């Protein structure tokens, strides 16, 4: 891609930080400017400083993705920077930030189930607000997960697949008097990742010419902060598991995400193409559903109070 700016959500740790540093370490002609959208604090400052030390031009945009007012403010700040030529033209957005919340009664600041709010709704808001600000060609890369469907390994590990329902139901937290379960939390996570697949397909139909939409699956990374709610002991076990060949880690998958975002090898990706680490894969047939995709788009507009993307092209 031509030199430009890449926006990354969730850049402060794990996969996001690894991808940011892989981009920052590229040689100058191919090194993008970086917009880092994450929670305000020392971790955001630290990754920005480390990327600057590699020679990258970095701007930080503090935002809590569990609060849509923060997401909208972040979108406005990005537009200000791009319009003022304070950064290069916007060439890519990496929707990396994610959550897996054990207690599905927990709600975002806007009242939505927290996993769905962070993984899906926040990114739909940000992308919708910025879609007309992209230069051409450009890429939108969403973070997917194979947990959306069940296979033998996930069955053995007890990882539940998505159980699709109307998006307005998916956005509704469990009632206060009900008891959350680990399985329900896993289903909520898988539902949010299936939502991103449906969204990617519908987004491509509505995106301006020159904007390609893809979904990246980094592989199972048991040692990342995504599993922090399962306790420190489980996180330590996960980091040990990442040493096993074949198990993914941020150190291995971060550069792969940077490649999908920037490299000519992936310039053909469109229509929500699904990339698992370094290979493009077909999705399960039920993950291609025009009726569900259209309904998700309609419900998303309702949940967000209207998204900034035009009619189907």
Structural features, described:
This protein is an alpha/beta fold and 313 residues long. The chain has a single domain (5-304), classed as 3-Layer(aba) Sandwich (Rossmann fold). Helices cover 41% and strands 15% of the residues. The protein is built from 10 helices and 8 strands. Strands 3-2-1-4-5-6-7-8 form an 8-stranded mixed beta sheet, with helices on both faces. α1 (14-24) links the parallel β1 and β2. α3 (68-83) packs parallel to α4 and α7 (182-206) packs across α10 (290-304). The chain starts with a strand and ends in a 9-residue tail after the last helix. The mean pLDDT is 92.
Please outline the helices and strands.
Elements lengths: L4 E5 L4 H11 L8 E6 L3 H12 L4 E5 L5 H16 L6 E6 L18 H17 L3 E10 L8 H6 L9 H4 L11 H25 L4 E7 L14 H10 L8 H13 L10 E4 L2 E3 L8 H15 L9
Parallel strand pairs: 1-2, 1-4, 2-3, 4-5, 5-6, 6-7
Antiparallel strand pairs: 7-8
Helix pairs in contact: 1-2, 1-9, 3-4, 4-7, 7-10
């Amino acid at each position: 891609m031509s030199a430009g700016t890449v926006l990354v959500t969730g850049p402060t740790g794990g996969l996001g930080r690894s991808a940011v540093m892989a981009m920052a370490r590229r040689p100058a002609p191919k090194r993008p400017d970086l917009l880092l959208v994450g929670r305000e604090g020392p971790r955001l400052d630290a990754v920005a400083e480390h990327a600057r030390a590699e020679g990258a031009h970095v701007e930080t945009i503090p935002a809590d993705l569990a609060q849509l007012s923060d997401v909208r403010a972040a979108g406005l700040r990005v537009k200000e920077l791009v319009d003022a030529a304070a950064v290069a033209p916007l060439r890519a957005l990496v929707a990396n930030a994610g959550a897996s919340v054990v207690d599905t009664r927990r709600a975002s600041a806007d009242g939505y189930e927290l996993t769905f709010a962070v993984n899906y709704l926040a990114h739909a808001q940000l992308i919708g607000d910025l879609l007309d600000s992209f230069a051409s060609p450009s890429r939108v890369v969403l973070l997917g997960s194979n947990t959306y469907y069940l296979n033998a390994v996930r069955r053995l590990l007890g990882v539940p697949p998505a159980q699709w329902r109307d998006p307005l139901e998916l956005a509704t937290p469990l009632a206060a008097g009900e008891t959350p379960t680990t399985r329900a939390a896993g289903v909520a996570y898988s539902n949010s990742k299936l939502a991103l697949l449906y969204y990617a397909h519908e987004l491509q139909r509505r995106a301006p010419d020159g904007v390609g939409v893809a979904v990246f699956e980094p592989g199972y990374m048991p040692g990342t902060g995504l599993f922090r709610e399962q306790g420190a002991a489980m996180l330590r076990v996960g980091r040990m598991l990442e040493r096993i060949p074949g198990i993914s880690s941020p150190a291995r998958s971060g550069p792969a995400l940077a490649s999908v975002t920037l490299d000519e090898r992936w310039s053909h990706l469109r229509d929500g193409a699904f990339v698992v680490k370094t290979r493009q894969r077909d999705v399960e047939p039920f993950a291609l559903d025009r009726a569900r995709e259209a309904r998700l788009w309609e419900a998303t507009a309702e949940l967000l109070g209207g998204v900034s993307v035009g009619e189907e092209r």
